[in-house]
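User: I'm curious whether this sequence folds into something compact or stays loose and floppy. Could you predict its structure so I can see for myself?
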Amino acid sequence: MPPFEGARCEYAANWAAVKLRWQPTVDPAEANALAQAAVTCPNTPLKVTLAR
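Assistant: Here's the prediction. I'll summarize afterward.
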């Protein structure tokens, strides 16, 4: 995660969008980090373009 608090929500949203688009595996630590980001950034928009 970026060291600057203001960038963390956007970073986490982009990270989640990549995971949703390409569906790679997610280990438990990564899932926990994404879940924590979702709790601390509840109003961050998430834009996903599904892979074809």
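Summary: The CA atoms of residues 6 and 14 lie 14 Å apart. The chain has a mean pLDDT of 90.
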